[in-house]
């Protein structure tokens, strides 16, 4: 799964993305949102890979919480593709 955001200096350097399989937390990934997403491009937008996970419950849930160290936490876009 990949995410994208518009970087600004007042966004967190540790935006926490929690990835769940149903109600089971698989991992939490910290992203520096003061920098641009680095990775593949889709529709002219750069996306950064959070993780590759296996989902067995048929429910993928990604939660971006506001507990980072910046003023704003931003969720612009997310891409999910089957492997």
Characterize the structure shown.
This protein is an all-beta fold and 83 residues long. Helix content is 0%, strand content 39%. It has a three-stranded antiparallel sheet, with no helix packed on it. The chain has a three-stranded antiparallel sheet with strand order 3-2-7, with no helix packed on it. A hairpin with a 2-residue loop joins strand 4 and strand 5. The mean pLDDT is 92.
Q: Tell me the β content.
A: 35-45%
Q: Percent helix among the residues?
A: under 10%
What is the average per-residue confidence, as pLDDT, rounded to a whole number?
92
Ends: how far apart? Answer: 10 Å
| Oligomeric state of this protein | single chain
3D shape: flat
| Model regions low in confidence, pLDDT < 50 over at least 5 residues | none
Structural class: mainly beta
Biggest sheet layout: 3 strands, antiparallel
Rg to the nearest angstrom? 13 Å
Q: Count of DSSP E strands?
A: 8
Order of helices and strands: EEEEEEEE
With helices defined by DSSP (H or I, 4 residues minimum), what is the helix count? Answer: 0
| Strand arrangement, major sheet | 6-1-8
Short description:
The protein has 83 residues and is an all-beta fold.
Keywords:
83 residues, mainly beta, 3-stranded antiparallel beta sheet, 0% helix
